[in-house]
Amino acid sequence: MNPLFGHDPFWVVLLKSVLIFIVLVVYTLFNIWFERRVVAKMQHRIGPNVHGPFGLLQSLADGVKLAFKEDLVVKAADKVVYVLAPILATIPAFLAWAVIPFGPEVTIPFTDQKTMLQLTDLPVAVLYILAVTSIGVYGIVLAGWSSGSIYALLGGLRSSAQMISYEVAMGLSLVSVFMYAGSMSTSEIVSAQHSMWYFVPLFPSFVIYVIAMIGETNRAPFDLPEAEGELVGGFHTEYSSLKFALFFLAEYVNMVTVSALATTMFLGGWRAPFGISHVWEGANEGYWPLLWFFGKTLFFIFIFVWLRGTLPRMRYDQFMSFGWKILIPVALAWIVAVAFIRKLKSEDMLGGPTLLIVAGVAGVLVLLTFLIPEKKEPEPEPEPDEVDAFAGGYPVPPITEPPTRNAR
Predict the structure, then answer these.
(1) Residue 134 included in any domain
(2) What average pLDDT score do residues 224-242 get?
(3) Which of 18, 74, 175, 221 is disulfide-compatible with 311, CB 3.0–4.6 A?
(4) Cα gap 291→56, rounded to integer Å
(5) Interatomic CA distance for residues 388 and 74, integer angstroms
């Protein structure tokens, strides 16, 4: 790891922490506006356009509205857990950003202090992110349980099963990245992608991760814990005002978190897109990498919005079956294939072009498995029930076909 990590003065650590918090809150407000505008374009509507230029202040207006709403606490709720649940769901979403790299080493303006555009780093930084983000499910489960409502409880149970299932697939999709980079440090994984981004040789892992991150963040078409047609509003049915806003904030910050992790693992992190660094030598220096980093995260946010505006919600049994019977087995098989390829390459039995061809063929085979239809045996037709004309004490004649007249 870079020797600058762990040696920053206290004021630098505090400054970076405050800036990360501010950036995430502002980015959340922007993402809400961005989602509304993109979905409006897809549905041939106008979208927010009144508050501020292009409606950019609409999200801020919604936040102020939520703050001034009446804060209700239902009588059947467990008061302490009811209040702590939204806090427990929100804080881990921010903590995960402690090890996300925004850029290279820079000099703080108006000072001579050099620091990394990253709060800190760990030898197991990716495992830290997975561990911290998994704590957020406790806030959702406790919110459903403490509300004293059966609909909220069912939403919390759904969310816990969903996040645990798809977190397994997400973790397995990152194993191949660890094999290629030889490290779990986020900064070292970004450095290892200086010549090729990992989504090219590890495309199946990239696809598995994208599917898993949508399932883990409870976004459409996997927003089953909040299925209003089945559960009214899901785990936050009994919440209002700022406590409801905290759940809203946690959802959008988690979207940015998984998008930033996907950028770091598969799209080269803060490095400039292909071709720009060859033409412009300073593309990966100074504060310019912030532009590339947030541009890549916005690409994944667009995928979230695009899927919400185009795909219907899945059935819960289909969703869980897809995660356990397809996604996880495919991820395990891909890990074995990557380990085999890495072994052949270490023994000089597999060249670079051959490696790409093998990885491409394996990726196509993995994608084809999703297209193979499942064979289902035809169900026998149920036999019609006999009509009891005297059921209930009222004799009712059975329905018969009307008599036909003879043609004259």
Answers:
(1) yes
(2) 73
(3) 221
(4) 20
(5) 49
